[in-house]
């Protein structure tokens, strides 16, 4: 009976999405293309050929993904995959590393595990594609689209209609500020100063994206990093069940994202930035969906990387786990985040509108 309730609940959410987005019902994508920038939360294979620790093209990663291990840092689809489906795309948006020909007209995923807003972020992991490099790669894509469409004006008009998702910043804490033995940022900046510096740098990079033709841009806030199994294993846990000091530091960054969105929309003509409140969405009570294991990895993880040990058999009840490895969510959590980012369930989920409404503008 309980299982039936969970299935009905999930189906009711999907039904509400279908009823709210007519173009998706009709099978035609709401927008011509979808571009993704970010870190391991959206990486779908860009790190596979890099010399890096941040690479997961092996089982048990992808155990629930039709194509198997592809470089996605989860058991199935990541949030970017699901948002692409909700927008109406028939196929997954390809990683920049493997795009060719006219495929780029539907969009490109530039996400890279270990990447951050700051260029030095993740350097201890090895190769990774920082947000700055992702923007350079996008500039290459824009030039190719200009050739495909015939001229810059046609390309600009085309790109203005697309959706852009940016999911980045977690590594600027996990693989930078929270590792004083490798990075100097925690000695140079107080938590508040660091958040301010990050936002300033982020703003510059988002303005660069705007210059490349982006107008409809969804910025995702950071999750509660202090609740990840990786941080819980190395810090004292508070009564909340998480590491409050880390969550408080990360929230200083998140608190600046709404004002950032307002400022960009005010300063940049025709810009339509929105904010997705990842913390609000993923920190709620997900037990109604059957997620009953909130802070234990589903797979056996390496004590040095926090990633799944290659070839090991993960938990069988994966829909009951919030975390796949020490830092990355399972597909069920990605599903919750993506659906509420696309079609907000609560007023706190997105600001000022959700991705579905953004696509309709």
From TrEMBL:
Keywords: Hydrolase, Lipid degradation, Lipid metabolism, Secreted, Signal. It comes from Ilex paraguariensis (yerba mate). Coiled coil: none annotated. Its main location: secreted. InterPro entries: GDSL, GDSL_esterase/lipase, SGNH_hydro_sf, SGNH_plant_lipase-like. The keyword Signal applies. GO terms for biological process: lipid catabolic process. The lineage of its organism: Eukaryota, Viridiplantae, Streptophyta, Embryophyta, Tracheophyta. It is found in: Secreted. Gene3D superfamilies: SGNH hydrolase (3.40.50.1110). Belongs to the 'GDSL' lipolytic enzyme family. This is GDSL esterase/lipase. One of its GO terms (cellular component) is extracellular region.
């Amino acid at each position: 009976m309980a299982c039936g309730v969970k299935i009905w609940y999930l189906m009711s959410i999907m039904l509400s999405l279908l009823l709210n987005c007519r173009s998706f019902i009709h099978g035609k994508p709401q927008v011509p293309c979808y571009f993704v920038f970010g870190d391991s939360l959206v990486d779908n294979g860009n790190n596979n050929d890099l010399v890096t620790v941040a690479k997961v093209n092996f089982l048990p990663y992808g155990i629930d993904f039709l194509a198997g291990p592809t470089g996605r840092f989860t058991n199935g689809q990541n949030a970017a995959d699901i948002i692409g489906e909700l927008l109406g795309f028939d196929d997954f948006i390809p990683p920049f590393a493997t795009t060719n020909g006219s495929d780029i007209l539907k969009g490109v995923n530039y996400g890279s595990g270990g990447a951050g807003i700051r260029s030095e972020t993740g350097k201890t992991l090895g190769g990774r594609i920082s947000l700055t490099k992702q923007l350079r790669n996008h500039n290459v894509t824009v030039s190719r689209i200009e050739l495909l469409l015939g001229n810059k004006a046609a390309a600009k008009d085309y790109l203005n209609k697309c959706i852009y998702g940016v999911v980045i910043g977690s590594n600027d804490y996990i693989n930078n500020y929270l590792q004083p033995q490798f990075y100097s940022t925690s000695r140079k900046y107080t938590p508040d100063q660091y958040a301010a510096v990050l936002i300033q740098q982020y703003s510059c990079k988002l303005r660069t994206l705007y210059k490349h033709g982006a107008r409809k841009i969804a910025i995702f806030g950071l999750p509660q990093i202090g609740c990840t199994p990786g941080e819980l294993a190395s810090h004292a846990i508070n009564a909340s069940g998480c590491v409050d000091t880390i969550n408080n530091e990360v929230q200083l960054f998140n608190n600046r994202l709404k004002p950032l969105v307002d400022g960009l929309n005010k300063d940049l003509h025709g810009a339509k930035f929105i904010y997705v409140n990842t913390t609000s969405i993923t920190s709620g009570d997900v037990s109604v969906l059957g997620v009953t294991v909130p802070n234990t990895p589903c797979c056996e993880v390496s004590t040095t990387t926090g990633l799944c040990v290659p070839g090991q058999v993960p938990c069988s009840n994966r829909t009951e786990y919030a975390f796949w490895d020490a830092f990355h969510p399972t597909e069920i959590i990605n599903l919750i985040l993506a659906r509420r980012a696309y079609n907000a369930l609560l007023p706190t989920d997105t600001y000022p509108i959700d991705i579905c409404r953004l696509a309709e503008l």
